[in-house]
Specification:
heterodimer, A: alpha+beta, Hypothetical protein af1432, Alpha-Beta Plaits, 4-stranded mixed β-sheet, 48% helix, globular, B: mainly alpha
C-alpha cells in the first residue's frame, strides 16, 4: 500500500529521502541517518540526526522534520547554493537544502547562548529576556523553523539572475513569504502550533519583511534580535553557515573561522552610544569576529564576485530571458515549486546543441566555455581620477566594438558590519571599532567589471592599453 | 533623485550636522535623514520601517556603505557614541559637481541640522517616532497619535509622546512656511 505523503516506511525511504532501518535501540547514521527506537515509527521519535560535513550532526525534532518533508523545502535539493560557481570551483555543487539545515542548527545554538541567564550579563539583555522567558520554547522553535525556511523562495541558481528575471516588486524573499503562507505550509504550521507570521517575520528580517510587502510592519526589540540571529549582517547564522560551507565545497580555506568560539561569546548588548539591544560579543570573541568578517571579505572578493563567476551569471541570465515565457520566472507557488536548476540545465544543454533554439548563443558560451573575457576592472588608481571609470570604459568599449560585444557587472556591498557592541571584562560595553584595529581596516567590497567578446579580446586589450588614461578622464556624473 | 544627487544631499547633511555639534553616528544620520525626507519633503526616497528604536532605513544603511566604498565617507571610531561618519577628503570635489542639487536643498538641510544636531539618542527616537506616526495617520487627533506612539514604544509615556508630537508639528509648520 502506498504510504500517505510524509509518512516514512520502515526499511524504505520517506519523501525526504531518509533511510529508515529497524534498528533495536541503536543509533544509525547514514548520509541522512535517522535516530530511532525499535518498534516505534520514526516520526514518533522526538529527535532525528542528519550527517553534515560542516556541523557533523544536524539535530531536528519531529515537528521540524515535517517541515523538512514539505514540497517547498525538498525543492531546495535541486537549487545550487552558488549557482554556476562549480564551473570555476568544481567542488561547489552543494545545494540550498544542506545550507538551510545548517542555518537551522546554528540558529538553535545561538538562541540557546543568547537566552542563557548565565550569559545575560547586561541589563539590556535581562530586561529583554525577562518579558519572553516563559515562551522560550515557542520562540526557539520559531527561530529554527524560520532559519530552516529562510531560502525556500530562491529561484533556480539562487541569486544568479533574480533581479532581471522577476516582475517589478518581486524578489525571492517575497516568494518565501508567499510559500510560508501557502495552504501546505499553513496546515503544517498549524499542526505544530506555530504562527506562520512569526516564521515569516524572522525568516525575512526587517530589511525584507518590512518595506517590500508589509510597509506598516514593526519589529519590536525581541523580534529584531531573533531575526538578527538568522539574517543579521554581523553575526547572522545564514552568513556563518554559508561562509563555512561555501569555502569547504569550493576548496578555499579563507572562508573558515572559529565559529564555535564566536557563537559561545555572542551576547545581547546595547548598541554603541544607545540602549538599543543588538547582537554583540564578549571581548574574548573579538578575534573570532575579526576572522568572520575577514572571511566574508575574502569570500566576497575572491569567490562570490570572482569575475568569471559573474560572466557565467550574465550568460545564464541571457539564456533565461530568451527561454522563459515573457523573459521572467512565474511567481505563483505551483510554477515556482516546479522550476529548479534541473529544468534549466536540461533546457540549456539542449539549446547549446541546437542553433535554432532562441537561447542557443548564451547556452553555447556556457557549455563550451566561450564566455566573455575580462577587459577592465575597478581599481583604486582609476577611482581616484573618476568614480565612474568602469562605466566610462564600458560606454567607450560599446561604442567602439558594438554593444553586443561588451558586458559589465557592478556590485557594492550593501552592508559592512564592522561596528557591533563588545562586552569588556570589567562589565563595560563599547564599540568593536575601539577594540579592534583589524575591523577598522576591513574594506567595503566593491567590484566593477567590463567584459569583451573573446573574438574581440586582443583588439580591445590593445585599444584599452593605449587609451586608458584618456577614456576614464571623460567628464561624467555631474548635474547638467 | 539620482543616486549621486542623493549622496550629495547626504554628504551636505552630514557636514552641517558636524558643524552644529552632532557626533554623526549612524543613528543620528538615520533619524535626521528621516526628518529631511518626511519633515521637509526632500525626495531622497528611502524606505523606513518602525524598528527597535524608531524609524530605520536599511536602504539608507546600504547607501552609507556604498559611500564608504566610493571613498566619500570615512569611519572614525570614538567613545561613547560608537563610529562617527565624516565626509572624506574626496567629498568637497564630489559636492562641487552637484552645487545646484545641494543648493536646492540647503535650507532644508540647515533646518534639520539646527533642529536635530544636539539631540541625544532618546530624543532622536522620540522625535522620529512622533514624525513616523504623524505621517502614517495624518488625520488622527493628538490623543490617538500619542496612544499609538505609546503602543509602539511603551517606554515613551503618553505625556512624552504628546510633547514630541507638538514639537514635530511645529517643525513641519516652519518647514512649510516661506523662508
Amino acid at each position: 500500500m502506498k504510504p500517505a505523503p510524509g509518512v516514512p516506511v520502515v526499511g524504505g525511504k520517506s519523501r525526504a529521502g531518509f533511510r529508515l532501518m529497524p534498528i533495536r535501540g541503536e543509533r544509525i547514521f547514514g548520509s541522512f541517518g535517522v535516530l530511532r527506537r525499535a518498534g516505534v515509527g520514526a516520526m514518533s521519535k522526538p529527535l532525528h540526526e542528519i550527517r553534515d560535513p560542516i556541523h557533523n550532526f544536524i539535530r531536528l525534532e519531529t515537528p521540524e522534520r515535517k517541515v523538512l518533508d514539505s514540497r517547498p523545502f525538498q525543492r531546495l535539493r535541486h537549487v545550487h547554493q552558488l549557482a554556476m560557481a562549480y564551473l570555476l570551483y568544481p567542488g561547489a555543487t552543494h545545494r540550498r537544502f544542506e545550507h538551510s539545515l545548517g542555518v537551522m542548527e546554528l540558529a538553535g545554538r545561538v538562541f540557546d547562548v543568547v537566552t542563557n541567564p548565565n550569559y545575560s550579563d547586561h541589563e539590556v539583555a535581562r530586561n529583554l529576556l525577562r518579558s519572553y522567558q516563559s515562551d522560550f520554547g515557542y520562540w526557539r522553535r520559531v527561530v529554527r523553523l524560520a532559519a530552516l525556511c529562510h531560502d525556500i523562495g530562491h529561484l533556480p541558481f539562487s541569486h544568479a539572475a533574480e533581479k532581471e528575471l522577476l516582475p517589478e516588486g518581486w524578489d525571492h524573499e517575497r516568494i518565501t513569504d508567499d510559500l510560508l503562507r501557502s495552504d501546505e505550509m499553513t496546515r503544517l504550521f498549524k499542526d505544530i502550533k506555530v504562527n506562520p507570521d512569526d516564521v515569516a517575520k524572522l525568516a525575512l528580517g526587517p530589511k525584507k519583511f518590512g518595506p517590500k510587502k508589509h510597509r506598516e510592519a514593526t519589529f519590536d526589540p525581541w523580534e529584531a534580535i531573533l531575526s538578527e540571529i538568522i539574517v543579521g549582517d554581523a553575526f547572522g547564522v545564514d552568513r556563518i553557515d554559508y561562509l563555512l560551507r561555501d569555502s569547504y565545497h569550493a576548496g578555499v580555506s579563507y572562508g573558515r573561522f572559529d565559529h564555535f568560539r564566536l557563537i559561545d561569546t555572542l551576547r545581547i548588548l546595547p548598541k554603541p552610544g544607545s540602549d538599543e539591544p543588538a547582537l554583540g560579543i564578549e571581548s574574548g570573541g573579538v578575534h573570532a569576529a575579526e576572522a568572520l568578517l575577514l572571511a566574508r571579505y575574502f569570500m566576497y572578493s575572491q569567490v562570490y564576485f570572482h569575475h568569471t563567476r559573474r560572466i557565467y551569471d550574465i550568460h545564464l541570465t541571457e539564456f533565461l530571458k530568451r527561454w522563459l515565457p515573457g523573459g521572467k520566472f512565474a511567481t505563483d507557488i505551483e510554477s515556482h515549486l516546479r522550476m529548479t536548476d534541473n529544468e534549466v540545465l536540461a533546457e540549456m544543454r539542449a539549446a547549446a546543441e541546437d542553433p535554432a533554439h532562441r537561447g542557443h548563443e548564451p547556452a553555447r558560451r556556457i557549455a563550451r566555455r566561450e564566455h566573455f573575457r575580462l577587459l577592465y576592472q575597478r581599481n583604486p588608481d582609476d577611482q581616484g581620477v573618476n568614480l565612474k571609470s568602469a562605466e566610462m570604459i564600458h560606454a567607450h568599449a560599446a561604442s567602439r566594438f558594438g554593444a553586443e560585444s561588451v558586458r559589465s557587472f557592478r556590485y557594492t556591498e550593501t552592508s559592512n558590519p564592522i561596528e557591533f557592541p563588545v562586552l569588556m571584562p570589567d562589565g563595560r560595553t563599547g564599540s568593536s571599532l575601539n577594540t579592534s584595529e583589524v575591523l577598522r581596516r576591513i574594506p567595503v567590497v566593491s567590484v566593477e567589471y567590463v567584459f569583451i567578446d573573446p573574438a574581440k579580446r586582443a583588439d580591445a586589450e590593445k585599444w584599452l592599453g593605449g587609451n586608458r588614461a584618456e577614456l576614464i578622464r571623460t567628464p561624467e556624473g555631474a548635474e547638467k | 533623485m539620482k543616486q549621486a544627487e542623493r549622496q550629495a544631499v547626504l554628504l551636505s547633511l552630514i557636514a552641517r550636522l558636524r558643524e552644529r555639534g552632532s557626533w554623526c553616528g549612524e543613528t543620528h544620520i538615520q533619524k535626521d535623514t528621516f526628518f529631511l525626507q518626511e519633515g521637509c519633503d526632500v525626495p531622497v526616497e528611502f524606505n523606513y520601517i518602525m524598528y527597535k528604536h524608531g524609524p530605520y532605513s536599511f536602504d539608507l544603511n546600504d547607501e552609507l556603505t556604498a559611500m564608504r566604498a566610493d571613498g566619500l565617507l570615512t569611519v572614525v571610531p570614538a567613545e561613547p557614541y560608537g563610529a562617527h561618519l565624516y565626509p572624506s577628503e574626496m567629498a568637497p570635489t564630489f559636492l562641487a559637481r552637484f552645487r545646484n542639487t545641494v543648493g536646492r536643498h540647503a535650507a532644508a538641510v540647515e533646518r534639520v541640522a539646527r533642529h536635530m544636531a544636539t539631540k541625544n539618542v532618546k530624543e532622536l527616537e522620540r522625535s522620529a517616532t512622533a514624525l513616523y506616526v504623524l505621517r502614517s495617520q495624518p488625520a488622527a487627533t493628538t490623543d490617538v497619535l500619542a496612544a499609538e506612539i505609546n503602543r509602539l514604544k511603551p517606554h515613551m509615556s503618553i505625556a512624552e509622546a504628546t510633547v514630541a508630537l507638538a514639537e514635530v508639528r511645529q517643525f513641519i509648520d516652519l518647514a512649510q512656511s516661506p523662508a
